[in-house]
From TrEMBL:
Keywords: Isomerase. It comes from the Bacteria. InterPro entries: NUDIX_hydrolase-like_dom_sf, NUDIX_hydrolase_dom. The keyword Isomerase applies. Pfam families: NUDIX. It comes from Actinocorallia herbida. This is Isopentenyl-diphosphate delta-isomerase. GO terms for molecular function: isomerase activity. Residues 35-164 form the Nudix hydrolase domain. Gene3D superfamilies: Nucleoside Triphosphate Pyrophosphohydrolase.
Amino acid sequence: MTHPHDTEILDLVDGRDTVIRQIARSDFPRWEGRGHLRVVDCFLRNDRGELWIPRRALDKRLAPGGLDYSVGEHVLSGEDYPAAAVRGFAEELNLTVTPADLTYLAKIPPAPGKPFFQALYLLATDTAPRYNPADFTGFTWLTPEDLLTRIERGDPAKPSLAATVRHLLHLTRP
């Protein structure tokens, strides 16, 4: 069965995040090791420092039923990181945001087991969004430390989530 995301056209980039070609998302496994993808991952953070953490739908190919970023998107071909984040907020959380609403934290380079450049953003809000039920089945507000504890105790999660939360803690500590 073909998944709707399989036909997305993405930019394959080199180690400096320069586009080297376009590929269908479903073709990336053939190109892995010869280039990287681009993704955006975003967290909603409330005034108490808690992150809005959704639980992925059970029909997801990656980490079904697992904890997830508030928003996570592949950057489409020709799109920049902020535009992908704005699109993700609309598609996954039914929220209209602009790049100016988001706090850019970092662009994390590829690493072993993580073949993508990852732009990380925060959106300050105390309101839980009306998320897309095709993407998520529920949510909770958690401190980054509590989220890491849950993952370390075996709560399923998207594979890159724990490392990203550790990076977030490093970036946001006074």
